[in-house]
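Researcher: Here's the sequence for the chain we discussed earlier.
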Amino acid sequence: MAGTLQFDAGSHLPADWRDARLLGRIDFGEGPCPVIIQGGQVYDMAGIAPTVSLLVDAGALDGTAGRDAGPLDALDLATGDAAATPRLLTPIDFQCVKGAGVTFAMSAVERVIEERARGDAGAAAALRTRLEERIGGGIRAVTPGSPEAASLKAVLIEEAMWSQYLEVAIGPDAEVFTKAPVLSTVGWGQQVGVRSDSTWNNPEPEVVLLLDASGTPVGATLGNDVNLRDFEGRSALLLGKAKDNNASCALGPFVRLFDDGFTMEDVRAAEVSLKIEGEDDYVLHGRSSMRQISRDPLDLVRQTLSEHQYPDGFVLFLGTLFAPTQDRDDPGRGFTHKPGDIVTIASAALGTLVNQVTTSRDAAPWTIGIGATLRQLAARGLKGA
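Model: Thanks. This is the structure I predict for it:
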């Protein structure tokens, strides 16, 4: 079913997309070009800078300086078909791809409570009350790294409920990891992969920041931080194998650039919805509210930049509140993906990201790396290549 998803500006972009500035990449036939959507028009920016990374670094984010390629809604954009053009691509290129995990302390703490209570809601409520009495404040309001968080940690250790996940959920240090190699992300309509030997996995719908080389946020997009719960659940040391696989990181459709109509406050207030539709007629709905994040996005940026530099910029997945428990097949087995699942991630200000699930083994192989990209840019004679 690869290539069957059809991109439509009216359906998959924010309702105010004609008033927004959107940054991304389109292949018009000669190779990937950075584009800016402004006033509903597509501007090919390759003549200004050959990559999104260089375009952002130059601060050249006024689309009218580029080549007018016509109205976006007049383009018949291909997605999954690698040979068809014009083709919509992942909106980033040379940026590092970073992820922040367990950023919603409420869900992490609640999972520990639920595990300890063994699914008994009454026992969970009693345990929550006892913890709050010991802490002197609400679990839901705890700030990572605060004295209240330290008190919560002490209580949880005493209750034999502490875990390494809670350490990064409410401790002073955020979990920041590298999600995918440079140039390996997939875009709107492309297949997204899970390892063929994983039997328990799920999508992670997230807001993703785009940052320039100095660490200044320039915009945001949607992402799917595909996760293998069986691998990471066996050992946190398997995080790399759980997170970084062929086609396991999706971004798009475009990065919405910050301006007077879209700011970091919109990121902080974003509501992200998820829908999974299986070929077996299975349907799952989920939501993640950025209002419930425990660490401010700018604090996550600060921790990502701590003692590290990103000369080509980076994107940062901000984490998710979503953790599916709905059974798909046998009772008690919970949710896991099946090939053919359609995953739709949406947020009002950012649009909709749609991908179809396959295995990382069966997904289109990643073949265009840094060397191939540089050779391609040089062959096209693009400025700065």
